[in-house]
Specification:
- The protein is α+β, with helices and mostly antiparallel strands.
- It folds into two domains: 142 residues, Beta-Lactamase; 216 residues, Heat Shock Protein 90, CATH 3.30.565.
- The chain is built from eleven helices and twelve strands.
- The strands form three sheets. Strands 2-1-5-4-3 form a five-stranded antiparallel sheet. Strands 7-9-10-12-11 form a five-stranded mixed sheet. Strands 6-8 form a two-stranded antiparallel ribbon.
- Helix 8 crosses helix 9 and helix 9 packs antiparallel against helix 11.
- The longest helix is centred in the middle third of the chain and has 33 residues.
Length: 375
Amino acid sequence: MDMQNPQPERNNVVKELINYQEVKGLDFIKEFLNTLPYITAILNSDRQIVFSNNALLKMLNVETLESILGMRTGETINCINYSEENGGCGDFESCSYCGITKTILISQQNKSTVSDESRLTSVIDGRVVSYDFLVSASPLNLGKEYYTIISLNDISSEKRRKVLEKIFFHDILNTAGSLDGILDIIEDSTDKDKVYEFINIAKDTSKNLIDEILAQRELLAAEQNELAVKKSIILSSDLIKDVIKQSMYHIAAKGKVITLDNNSKSISFNTDVMLLKRVLKNMLKNALEAANDKGKVVIGCYEEPDFITFRVNNKGYIPRDIQLQIFQRSFSTKGPNRGLGTYSMRLLGEHYLKGKVYFESDQIEGTTFFIKLRI
């Protein structure tokens, strides 16, 4: 089966039912699968569910297996990329990077047990929910046909803990180290003007340190749907100036230039200032990390009927395979145990601010992240 075109022809309903009846009669398999605490399902050769354990039914809040019979995994979990118009689970461009699909296909091709990690974003009750799964797929030969047993072990909490450890032990420790170095300079300096200058830098660095900690607390609350939205009137130019000022002292800004677009507009509008500021700071941080040494990052605000749009641009290009995974939690080009920046942009910007967060990237204009809000 072609890994670049994993969508096979659908089985017809009759064959699905034959598959289901064949597996349903094996009581020992049913009993064994239902003892497992994680999601387990049996798929036919076309990756359609012909049996599952109770863990999957409980997760989906459905009472009978018949209601998901013949579906693929992305359909049952309501993967954000799933679309009937695109042909279903496995036919979307980003499906070629789906750990679940890849693991199943490799297992089917090699008739072997395969394990891998997978990131999956679902829409549940209108809310975007991200999962990290440890996926395992094994062949099951029942004589007439090969089936595949897959298991999805939710390791989201473990991945979340590792990301937080990385942030606190790396990012926050770096900021604290910078603050300590500034205080040493102040202590050793006899130049009063220099002392005042470094005190101001120390204050800004201290604010960034506190902000990093608050950002993680807010993100945890946001994921648990516990974040309160508090709106107030703000002038977009004031917001951008504040975001630029705070970002200038971030370690990613060293040797880089942040500029305001000459075409940027100053617009008064109503929003949650702290949450929007968080989104814009993540956009700036992301752009600064992607920019070359002495590179320039441009931020601006623009108005159109009923909408206000903020955008942040750098001249770096994001390869297509990375573009398809950019908003997934735990995905990062900066190494393992990272990947909350772009994910939090979308979570805060869309679920809480009710806007649209997206990006464009090409080799001429570079990469631009946007947040578009109704005013």
